[in-house]
Design a protein that fits this description.
The complex is a heterodimer of chains A (226) and B (477). Chain A is an alpha/beta fold. In chain A, 34% of the residues lie in helices and 22% in strands. A six-stranded parallel β-sheet of chain A has the order 1-12-7-4-2-3, sandwiched between helices. In chain A, strands 8-5-6-9 form a four-stranded mixed β-sheet. In chain A, α3 crosses α5. The radius of gyration of chain A is 21 Å and the shape is globular. The termini of chain A are far apart. By secondary structure, chain B is an alpha/beta fold. Chain B contains 23 helices and 13 strands. In chain B, the strands form three sheets. A six-stranded parallel β-sheet of chain B has the order 1-10-7-4-2-3, sandwiched between helices. In chain B, strands 8-5-6-9 form a four-stranded mixed β-sheet. In chain B, β5 and β6 form a beta hairpin. In chain B, α2 packs across α12, α3 crosses α12 and α17 packs parallel to α19. At the A-B interface, α1, α6, α7, β9 and β10 of A face α2, α3, α4, β1 and α8 of B. β9 of chain A pairs antiparallel with β9 of chain B. The complex binds iron/sulfur cluster (SF4). Iron/sulfur cluster binds next to α15 of chain B. Chain A: This is Lactate utilization protein C. Chain A: It comes from Collibacillus ludicampi. Chain A: Pfam families: LUD_dom (PF02589).
Chain lengths: 226, 477
């Protein structure tokens, strides 16, 4: 039944367009951004500098650091926000950076996003003051993180706690969105691909900008260079 | 809503009395506009991008049948469900059917203009299902039992004290401080509870992507992410034209939409959602449903000129620059969509409803809307065309035609024009309030009978007249 309703709907559109349903895929006169927007090579350091500038302009904090510095910075931030509970992605890079050990040194509890009881995990994430993710890409031009959801990579980790910290290697930096969308188109879409550009914000009270209305108010990007 | 019965003129008059409204609408739209200019500059050749945007949207709409069927295939491929709803009523029925099947008691919603067309919240509540708007602006107007007055800033007409009062009332409190932080924190706490317990998340859809079967949401607050991450079921509702061929095309819209609407380089969150959660994932919905809604849109496809209105990406830029919107605010437009886009699309989507056919007159035809539009929809031309159509269909009064003719006579020669202007500006003084002629001048009777005429200012009116005259010529011919 569903199908015939659909057929009728689409038939009506063809009729209104005044021609039969196209036999072949229509030729797109233009597609996406021009190809010169994605040169084969680019300067990672430059993309990184642009990211830091843009992320900072949005009230976020972004720093380029060594693994040792990362451990210090992380402890500082967790102390600063007096976090007692932390949730993190179950992610290879975060493991490699020994995030758990660092966090526990501050006295806070940390759990990773593992398969298990959905309710319980969500409730825990909701109680956390800090969520730590990695980022699949970071985009210089706009100051944007790209997070592909997946096993171990819960959407809620970068969403429910008021503080979001993203820890990722400098190699994940790209100059512009084109690289990420092209990658996604080629490798298949994850169930949820989130682009995060600064903190959660609203201007709905008299146009007065305010951060952290639903998502995180404090957003940190720790870019690791070994 | 009383607004539904009255004419645009009566509603505008009501709005013009409200000083806060005019101040707030002006300062917010000013801010949005200034940001817009700055962020456009950062992108480089804005005109080039607008043309790119226009081409992509025009291509999709001209091949809508193909892209919709491609979208449907891919949504199913991803394990989602898709429904094609000819009317708003069918869409509402579909949502309720899903809600009943999963025994939902609470629905959390992220902003969706199309669901306003369907009066979805009302229908859900009649079934005993709570429907909570979670965008802060939408939450405010839902508590106030009003509709949105701006596409991207729906509560633009409310000041902080009114918001504080509403919140206090909801909480059974006497008083809540009205500073922004307290108010946002209040909404955060209240709505967080709703996010955690809602069984269904309902969202709009900024763009659906045919090639991947995805829907894409732009939100600043993160409420769109909440309602697509926490509830067990996600229902996305889209106007049938909100589609792009590929995910690469989305980049062009990511450049255009936020810059045009709020002047951000990018909205805080852009989420591309492709089907329900996959195995091994803990959050995200178990079920994904996409409703494609026609509700009058296919009628617009026939006429190639009007077809362009379906290119709209609902960025709100045309509202921010419209001198009429800035005076009267959104509610005066009487239906879901305010501003220049509303003045065009409302009469088209409500073709059979005479009540909305006066909206094309709520414009000064200054073309600022066209200049602002990121996909180059010639709204001012379409307004003129709609007026002409009203004339064709005999919807305008005899008086209006007559006064048009008198105008033509008066303005045919520059000398007569000057005399008329001088005469009019002297005559109008006793009738001028807030720069509008509100009384009925005999010569203007047909004109002011349908709208308040802006006080004469000379040149711009002459330009406007030229356009109107063309319409009348057409009418005669
Ligand atoms: S008509 Fe153009 S400017 Fe107005 S909302 Fe639509 S896309 Fe934006």
């Amino acid at each position: 039944m569903q199908k015939s309703q659909e057929a009728a709907f689409i038939e009506r559109i063809s009729r209104k367009l005044g021609r039969p349903f196209p036999k072949e895929k229509p030729e797109q006169p233009v597609r996406g951004v021009p190809s010169e927007w994605m040169p084969d090579t680019f300067d990672t350091e430059q993309a990184c500098a642009a990211f830091i500038a843009n992320w900072t302009a949005l009230t976020g904090k972004a720093v380029l650091l060594t693994p040792d510095e990362l451990s210090q910075q992380l402890q500082e931030v967790i102390g600063h926000h007096q976090a007692q509970q932390v949730i993190r992605w179950d992610d290879d890079f975060l493991e490699e950076m020994n995030i758990d050990e660092t966090v526990r040194r501050t006295g806070a509890e940390i759990r990773s996003w593992k398969e298990g009881d959905r309710r319980e995990l969500l409730a825990y994430a909701e109680r956390c003051q800090v969520g730590i993710t990695s980022a699949d890409f970071a985009i210089g031009e706009t100051g944007t993180l790209a997070l592909f959801a997946g096993r171990g990579k819960g959407r809620s980790v970068s969403l429910l706690p008021p503080v979001h910290i993203a820890v990722f290697p400098i190699e994940r930096l790209v100059p512009r969105m084109t690289y990420v969308l092209t990658y996604a188109a080629k490798h298949g879409m994850s169930s949820s691909l989130n682009f995060i550009t600064g903190p959660s914000r609203t201007g709905d009270i008299e146009g007065d900008l305010s951060i952290g209305v639903h998502g995180p108010a404090y957003v940190y990007a720790f870019i690791v260079k070994k | 809503m009383s607004a539904e019965r009255s004419t645009i003129k009566e509603r505008a008059k009501e709005a013009l009395k409200d000083d806060y409204l005019r101040g707030a609408v002006k300062s917010t739209t000013d801010r949005l506009r200034t940001n817009k200019l700055a962020s456009q500059e950062a992108l480089g050749n804005w005109e080039w991008w607008r043309e790119r945007g226009r081409q992509i949207r025009a291509h999709v709409v001209a091949n809508l049948d193909y892209y919709l069927s491609q979208l449907a295939e891919n949504v199913r491929q991803n394990g989602g469900h898709i429904y094609f709803c000819e009317t708003g009523h069918e869409a509402v029925k579909q949502v309720i059917e899903i809600a009943k099947r999963v025994k939902a008691r609470s629905v959390v919603k992220s902003k969706s203009m199309v669901s306003e067309e369907l009066h979805l919240n009302h229908a859900l509540e009649q079934e005993g299902i709570e429907a909570v708007e979670t965008d802060l602006g939408e939450y405010i107007i839902q508590l106030a039992k009003e509709g949105p007055s701006h596409i991207i800033a729906p509560s633009i007409h409310k000041n902080r004290h009114q918001v504080a009062e509403l919140f206090a009332e909801t909480d059974g409190k006497e008083f809540i401080p009205s500073d922004t932080q307290t108010l946002t924190a209040f909404a955060r706490a209240k709505l967080r509870e709703k996010f955690m317990t809602g069984e269904i998340g309902v969202t709009g859809c900024n763009f659906a992507i045919a090639e991947t079967g995805s829907v894409c949401l732009f939100t600043n607050e993160g409420n769109g992410r909440m309602v697509t991450s926490l509830p067990k079921v996600h229902i996305a509702i889209m106007g049938m034209e909100r589609i792009l061929p590929t995910v690469e095309d989305l980049e062009v819209m990511m450049n255009l939409l936020p810059r045009a609407g709020t002047g951000q380089k990018l909205t805080s969150y852009v989420s591309i959602i492709t089907g329900p959660r996959k195995s091994g994932e803990v959050d995200g919905p178990e079920e994904f449903h996409l409703l494609v809604v026609d509700n009058g849109r296919s009628e617009i496809l026939e006429d190639e000129d009007f077809r362009q209105v379906l290119h709209c990406i609902r960025c709100g830029a045309c509202l921010n620059v419209c001198p009429v919107y800035r005076q009267i605010g959104g509610h005066a437009y009487g239906w879901v969509y305010p501003g220049p886009i509303g003045a065009v699309i409302t009469p088209l989507l409500n073709e059979r409803n005479d009540q909305y056919q006066d909206l094309p007159y709520a414009s000064s035809l200054c073309a600022a809307c066209y200049e602002a539009c990121p996909v180059k929809i010639p709204l001012h031309d379409l307004l003129v065309k709609l007026r002409a159509r009203n004339v064709e269909k005999g919807r305008t009064s005899r008086w209006e035609k007559l006064s048009f003719r008198m105008y033509r006579h008066a303005f045919r020669s520059p000398k007569r024009y000057r005399v008329a202007i001088r005469l009019a500006s002297r005559l109008q003084k006793p009738f001028l309030r807030h720069g509008f002629i509100q009384a009925q001048l005999p010569i203007l009777n047909g004109w002011t009978g349908a709208r308040d005429l802006r006080g004469f200012s000379g040149e711009s009116f002459r330009d406007r007249w030229k356009t109107l005259q063309n319409v009348l010529e057409k009418d005669k011919g």
